[in-house]
Amino acid sequence: MLSNNRSRKILKRNIHYGFLTEEKLPKVEFIEHNLTNESDWVITGEYKEFAKNHCATVCAANLTIFFRATRDDKNKIFMDIYKYMGNGPKIDIGYAMKKYFKDLDYDLKLKNLKSPGELKKSLDDRKPVILLLAGSLINWHWVLVTGYRIYGDEFYLKIVDGWHRIGRTYYKPGVGSKILLAIQCGLNKKN
Question: Is 53 left (phi over 0), alpha (psi -120 to 50) or beta?
Fold first, then answer.
């Protein structure tokens, strides 16, 4: 049996979810597909004074930026969507995101994806994906997927991790964390 202090350390350890920078990717030729060149994303560190476990809200704010659903600046976007989502951790964010986009006069379509092939097809169809990753039993993190790279038979997702302003972080599915949810996102302007 572990002591209380040891148990707390294991549960609170710093989880990186297996994320990689470009420098850590294979040094061979690759195929790349990007949905955006956006480089000024919302990050969790900007709101830690009042928001707790808010990666879901950050992910939804970054999805809003991706879709250019509003002309508001990123701080207003975060604050507006925070009113719908609040603090986390959150497993189900679909209802709050749909309500937020509906109030912006958009219809957000969400579809659960079940395989890496479906995830790749979604990105090939220019539809971003949001992922809920589990780094451990109690450490979860929401990210926005904006592209991929293929090195031979290795598949890496290009993600906006919510920790770095520039979305040049990569994740190899299943390495360092597990995908709990993969959700395709489509947005249509209401009439």
Answer: left
